[in-house]
Design brief:
67 residues, alpha+beta, 3-stranded antiparallel β-sheet, 3 strands, 37% helix
């Protein structure tokens, strides 16, 4: 089970979900993961994208740091 953040949102998303958030196609997202343009974590056959990485790419990352 994915670790939850304070807001209750999952800490990771799959490539299809990341593609939707980024407004790109599924194939483009997989290619970007393959090239290392989208940070990813591979667990067996699953590819997970840290939500924080997507937020950072979109400039939505919080400016406050957790203690």
């Amino acid at each position: 089970m994915a670790k939850k953040e304070k807001s209750g949102a999952r800490a990771t998303m799959n490539v299809d979900e990341a593609a939707e958030v980024l407004g790109i196609g599924r194939n483009a997202a997989y290619e970007a993961v393959s090239r290392g343009e989208i940070p990813s974590i591979r667990l067996g056959n699953r590819i997970l994208i840290p939500r924080q990485a997507i937020d950072r790419m979109l400039g939505l990352e919080s400016t406050t740091q957790a203690a």
